[in-house]
Amino acid sequence: MHETHLIEPVIKGIEAHAKKEGAKRVVKIRLKIGEFTGVKEESFRQTFKMLAKGTILEEAELEINFFLAERIEVVSFDIE
Fold this sequence. Notes:
Elements lengths: L3 H17 L5 E9 L6 H12 L8 E7 L4 E8 L1
Parallel strand pairs: 1-2
Antiparallel strand pairs: 1-3
């Protein structure tokens, strides 16, 4: 699971920010994933789902766009 080290900081960062805003859950997350990270979309989604289990991101819908870079960017997220 090569994606784990990329996804964990994303989950922790979004969760911390969302909780600070008083969120009960995150409903949608928009990400840009660099093509040079070597991440495959389906594997990313599966790993994200596994790592988000038990957090306020557990049921969040992922919107993923790829771009030419070596990083992952959180574009935005929606909370309730």
